[in-house]
């Protein structure tokens, strides 16, 4: 089973991921890609305790995740790769030799300088460009918070001003 | 909706929800914060209010529309504003729970109870235990034993 989702979500491991996606996908493992978390045992323990016993979680830097991607994609269980921001996903895609075909924008919440595009997506101009850069590498980029929602394609996402 | 009511809803994402029914009564001491997804916190507090009249003992917070840092900041403000040391959350893997656990590193006196149900909160609301550790453990046990399946 290939990795089901390459997700950008600033909450990283949380209810939507573990329950909302995890249960219907019968998720076996999570890969949290974050240079800071990968360097902090305490942070890793925090996230590990948020994961139910039937799931495993691995922590990688961007460089290590890209290096391990071929073996992760061959694992028999379903997995989700999580990053906390668009810049991290862009770096991961750039280092992954075309192995990532689709990216899910799952949650980028309100912060100074960001404009609301969807209920769960707020972007700065630089982040919008980051998503365009990812798409320019041949990756299908769409926004979708939970499995039951409609995936919103990148063009529609960046044109949206409704916040719905 | 009174300004006091709005102060009791510490979220940027949701509308304020009334947690009191008698605005003539002096504001009660907030004993705990309830944080969770969507309208979980305001909803469960409204149920406590309906059953016991003690909904004003709790401050509701929703994670709707908030990133992890914002959730943590909102919770920290709620603790400072209320003077409470107890936080109830809805889901062990939820973002509110993760934010509280991260915050507890710098606030060792904070107590977190996660995975709560209405029985948990009712028990806490009705207790007068002065020791919060005793209070939350009793509430936790009451919540656990309240769950049952009939007809299986």
Topology:
The complex is a heterodimer of chains A (164) and B (152).
Chain A: E1 5-9, H1 15-25, E2 27-33, H2 35-38, H3 41-48, E3 56-60, H4 62-72, E4 78-83, H5 86-94, E5 102-107, E6 115-118, E7 121-123, H6 125-136, E8 140-143, E9 152-153, H7 154-159
Parallel strand pairs in A: 1-4, 1-5, 2-3, 2-4, 5-8
Antiparallel strand pairs in A: 6-7, 8-9
Helix pairs in contact in A: 4-5, 5-6
Chain B: H1 3-7, E1 32-36, H2 40-52, E2 58-62, H3 68-82, E3 86-89, H4 95-103, E4 111-114, H5 118-126, H6 132-145
Parallel strand pairs in B: 1-2, 1-3, 3-4
Helix pairs in contact in B: 2-5, 3-4, 5-6
Detailed description of the structure:
The complex is a heterodimer of chains A (164) and B (152). Chain A has 7 helices and 9 strands. With 164 residues, chain A is of the alpha/beta class. Chain A has a single domain, classed as 3-Layer(aba) Sandwich (Fructose Permease). In chain A, the strands form 2 sheets. In chain A, strands 3-2-4-1-5-8-9 form a 7-stranded mixed β-sheet, sandwiched between helices. Chain A has a two-stranded antiparallel sheet with strand order 6-7. The longest helix of chain A is centred in the C-terminal third of the chain and has 12 residues. The termini of chain A are far apart. The mean pLDDT of chain A is 95. Chain B has one domain: Rossmann fold. Chain B has a 4-stranded parallel β-sheet, sandwiched between helices. The longest helix of chain B is centred in the middle third of the chain and has 15 residues. Chain B has 6 helices and 4 strands, in the order H-E-H-E-H-E-H-E-H-H. Chain B has 152 residues and is an alpha/beta fold. In chain B, helix 4 links the parallel strand 3 and strand 4. Chain B starts with a helix and ends in a 7-residue tail after the last helix. Chains A and B meet through helix 1 and helix 3 of A and helix 3 and helix 4 of B.
């Amino acid at each position: 089973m290939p990795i089901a989702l390459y997700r950008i979500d600033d909450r990283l491991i949380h209810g939507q991921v573990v329950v909302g996606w995890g249960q219907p996908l019968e998720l076996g493992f999570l890969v949290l890609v974050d240079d800071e978390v990968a360097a902090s045992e305490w942070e890793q323990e925090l996230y590990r305790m948020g994961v139910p016993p039937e799931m495993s979680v691995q922590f990688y830097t961007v460089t290590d995740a890209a290096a391990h991607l071929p073996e992760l994609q061959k694992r028999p269980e379903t997995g989700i790769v999580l990053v906390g921001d668009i810049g991290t996903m862009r770096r991961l895609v750039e280092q992954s030799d075309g192995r990532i075909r689709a990216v899910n924008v799952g949650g980028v919440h309100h912060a100074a300088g960001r404009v609301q595009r969807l209920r769960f997506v707020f972007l700065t101009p630089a982040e919008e460009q980051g998503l365009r850069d990812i798409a320019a590498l041949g990756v299908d980029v769409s926004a979708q918070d939970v499995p039951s929602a409609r995936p919103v394609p990148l063009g529609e996402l960046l044109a949206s001003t409704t916040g719905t | 909706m009174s300004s006091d009511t709005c102060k009791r809803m510490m979220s940027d994402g949701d509308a304020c929800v009334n947690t009191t029914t008698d605005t003539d009564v002096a504001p009660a001491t907030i004993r705990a914060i309830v944080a969770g997804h969507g309208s979980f916190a305001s909803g469960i507090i409204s149920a406590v209010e309906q059953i016991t009249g003690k909904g004003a003992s709790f401050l509701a917070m929703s994670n709707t529309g908030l990133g992890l840092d914002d959730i943590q900041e909102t919770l920290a403000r709620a603790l400072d504003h209320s003077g409470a040391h107890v936080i109830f959350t809805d889901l062990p893997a939820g973002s509110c729970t993760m934010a509280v656990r991260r915050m507890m590193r710098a606030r060792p006196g904070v107590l977190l109870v996660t995975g709560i149900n209405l029985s948990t909160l009712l028990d806490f609301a009705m207790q007068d235990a002065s020791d919060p550790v005793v209070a939350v453990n009793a509430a936790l046990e009451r919540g656990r034993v309240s769950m049952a399946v009939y007809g299986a």
